Amino acid sequence: MTTTHHLPAGKAAADVYAVDVTPESAGWGHSSLRVLELPAGGWHAFDTGDSEWIVLPLSGGCTVAVGGDTFRLAGRESVFSGVSDFAYVPRDAQVSIASRDGGRFALTGARCTRRLPARYGPASAVPVELRGTGSCSRQVNNFGAAGVFECDKLIAVEVITPGGNWSSFPPHRHDEHRPGEESELEEIYYFEFAPHEGTPGLGYQRVSPSGNGAHTDVLAEVRDGDVVLIPDGWHGPSMAVPGHDMYYLNVMAGPGTDRAWLICDHPDHAWIRDTWPERPVDPRLPLYTAPERS
């Protein structure tokens, strides 16, 4: 079972980034993720190049300047405390990020062809979805989902799984282009965990071969700051150990002309969806909801 697709915290660090996954480093064509940590009063500038990006605060707030636009992101205390606002920046642009109080910021990216305008995404406009029931209950913050926020190629969402629950279940794939049925998308998982009385959390991520691509096969213990790369394969479950809520950020992009998240469930486990109407959603969810529109 290969471990080249599991990058423990620090392994994907480069230059100023705590995480720097590029198409070149991942060995694929489209998806990127950077995690930028800024001290109080810190700032960072970068060229977007041939990719579009969403700047998403994980903790803290920042100001994003691109072209003649400046977006002030209120951010949040942590990924477990609330939905965040965000900023979209286009390809072929110079961007600067500054933070008065410091923080940690995700840059979710995808190679693209269209140059869309820079935009602000308010936290109040982020759909918060409760998916699954029972021990499969999880919360999805669809800030950059297809059909929610316009991008050329990029799809990005956040998932929160209460301690003891499974998400990304039933296992599913999106590694083959089948019009109207399945999209071909590369995917990045970035993990954070809620501690318990100072003890760090952990979880487990499974990816099994689907018969397509490189036959990706992963069973990884994941902790704060870990990354799992999924070029192909059935992915799931993502398992949160009891007592520690699990967060992951999903970044997806692919070669298709249609920006869509179309998945195929693993045939051995697809039946689990039929049981969901019989069970209540985990009462711990939602962990939080989007703020009211002002």
Automatic annotation (TrEMBL):
Superkingdom to which the source organism belongs: Bacteria
Alphabetical keyword list: Isomerase
Cross-referenced Pfam families: KduI
InterPro entries, alphabetized: Deoxy-glucuronate_isom_IolB, KduI/IolB_isomerase, RmlC-like_jellyroll, RmlC_Cupin_sf
GO molecular function, one term: 5-deoxy-D-glucuronate isomerase activity
EC number: 5.3.1.30
Stored Gene3D superfamilies: Jelly Rolls
Record protein name field: 5-deoxy-glucuronate isomerase
Gene: iolB
